Amino acid sequence: MVAEDISPAKNGGILKEIIKEGVGDELPVVGGSVTVHYTGTLLDGTKFDSSRDRNQPFKFNLGMSDVIAAWDIGVATMKRGEVAMLTCAPEYAYGKTGSPPKIPPNATLNFEIEVIDWTEEDLSPEKDGSITRVQITPGKDHSNPRDGSLVNIHLTGKYNDEVFDDRDVQFCLGEGEKDDIVEGVEKALESFKSGEKSKLKIKSKYAFKSEGNTKFNIPPNANVEYIVELKSFEKAVRSWNLNGSQKIEQAKISKDKGTNYFKEERYKLAIKMYKKALDFLSYDKEFENELKSESQSLLLSTHLNLSLCYLKTDQNIECKDACTAALKIDPLNEKAYFRRGQAYLALTMPDVAIQDFEHVLEIEPKNVAAVKHIHICKNVIKKEKEKEKKLYANMFEKFAQQDRQKEEEKLRQQPDVMRGVLGEWGQEERPGGRDATAFEKENPNILMLNANGTDEFQNM
To answer: What is the pLDDT of residue 423?
Structure first.
């Protein structure tokens, strides 16, 4: 087979000749651990190293500079089971210095390499194997899409080897939920390069989770696979590249997106968009004069919208914080006080919540909802006091009961003078050893005193 020039500069620096074809269409990926056998020789055939001679395969992390550049480049093009000869010019091997004593300076080397296997690259945030990637086609360039980038992809989803999704789709990275793109695909795409095609294995927590997906007939807690091709992407706008008016414009776009998602009850996406709007407005030094007023108005409305999203998703601490941020901008904002009061009430802090609802009435005395919530707070406080009173009453009764039990235990431990010490009369205990009288037999626990052993008390 004719050798192929696979050097990046196409200058003959790395020539690859396939000796044995591999299987499948998958390729190892950057970051994955690859296991190979190899034999290295000089151009005159002198062998300088061989894993086969040691009968010990060699493992390395592809693309991490663990090996010479020719290996990182060449092995990335090889399939599982493939055997190939790489002819490596010095600049892709050991360069001008060589690797004494076996490899001289400026040496061109031959490596016969067999790719045995590789582990898939772990793209999950926790590095627990919940999102893994195997490259099929390497991408181009060095840049990756980021959150907010407009991506154009083709994806094919499989569950139990059955295709459930196969389509082209374009969306902004981070907003894939609206297009039924699972979180695992979005996170993986942040590591893709343009033109890359890879297989992704995604566990349920980054796929359809415990809910499953009725549209695709995916059951709860299902692990899925995707073949994803990143056809192209447009880089996301970054705030540090914008002037003041541009930041306000981008903040408006993000805020409007958030409002649309809120109306669709996609609260997670709405929160994300509102946070993005706040990022564009975070450095107020960029805003002067009329821009300052506009940015403050946008900040206020965004914090208020964010607080409402948090209320809808029962994130009450976050809601409280968003309302507090809004009140720093507008200390007399009725909505901010009301929503913060709701958050405090949900956090079982009715005594603090009632203060916020009272602030609402100071601003707008006719606010019926605030009056209603004040009554709710008072009822909650009353019930808590009654519960507390009952709790303490039960506690004191419990202590009293324990004290009674201790006293009863002490009494039980005292000797029974009628039974335990003196016992019942037996013949040997009666004075003179006489037999028991009829009365004594009928009343064994009554002590008959007769010191002289006479019948003085016999008929008593």
So the answer is: 44
Our answer to whether residue 113 is catalytic in this structure is no
pTM above 0.70, yes or no: no
- 14, 72, 73, 94: the active-site residue: 94
Bridge partners of residue 151, in order along the sequence: 171, 233
Distance, in Å, from the CA atom of 350 to the CA atom of 369, rounded to the nearest integer, reads 15
Contacts of 181 (CB under 8 A, 6+ apart): 155, 169, 171
pLDDT at 417 over 70: no
Closest by alpha carbon to 134, among 156, 118, 155, 145? 118
Query: Among 360, 296, 379, which residue's Cα sits nearest to residue 330?
Result: 296
Q: Are 160 and 132 in contact (CB under 8 A)?
A: no
The answer to whether 267 is a known catalytic residue is no
What does the CA dihedral 311, 314, 317, 320 come to, rounded to 10 degrees? Answer: 10
Q: Please, are residues 225 and 199 in contact by the beta-carbon 8 Å criterion?
A: yes
When mean pLDDT is compared across 75-79, 404-408, 456-460, the lowest value belongs to 456-460
Q: Name residue, tokens 């004593």.
A: 101
Among 6, 18, 49, 363, the active-site one is 49
Question: Reading across the β-sheet that carries 197-202, which strands appear in turn?
Answer: 121-122, 131-137, 197-202, 224-234, 150-159, 162-172
**Residue 49 annotated in active site:** yes
User: Which residue of the set 92, 111, 192, 310 is catalytic?
Assistant: 111
- Per the DSSP assignment, residues forming a β-bridge with 33 are 61
Q: What is the pLDDT of residues 186-218, one digit of tens each?
A: 999 999 999 999 999 999 999 999 999 999 999
From 48, 58, 171, 216, the catalytic residue: 48
- 38-71 pLDDT per residue, tens: 999 999 999 999 999 999 999 998 988 899 999 9
Active site residue 147: no
pLDDT above 70: residue 422: no
pLDDT tens per residue across span 228-250: 999 999 998 888 888 889 999 99
pLDDT for position 405 = 77
Among 209, 205, 236, smallest CA distance to 220 is for 209
Sign of the Cα torsion 403, 405, 406, 412 reads positive
Mapping DSSP to helix (H, G, I), strand (E, B) and coil, where does residue 62 land? Answer: coil
**Does the pLDDT of residue 453 top 70, yes or no?**
no
Phi-psi category of 331—alpha, beta or left, where left has phi over 0 and alpha has psi -120 to 50? alpha
Buried b (16+ CB within 10 A) or exposed e, 360-397: beeeeeebeebeebbebbeebeeeeeeeeeeeeeeeee
